[in-house]
Amino acid sequence: MKIELNGAPLETSATTVDALLSEAGYDGAVVATARNGDFVPRAARAGEALREGDRIEILAPMKGG
To answer: What is the pTM of this model?
Structure first.
């Protein structure tokens, strides 16, 4: 299916936010996620189904100042 990941088009076989994180290389990383502008808590990612055209944001904390 075609989605948008962090502003870029992506073709994915993932069906959940959790599976997308794994596919995108974020497995085990501490990140925040949003689907179509709505925050998706870590505990809900496995049950949050992806749909064609979804906009997914993955945000990772950065050190520095």
So the answer is: 0.91
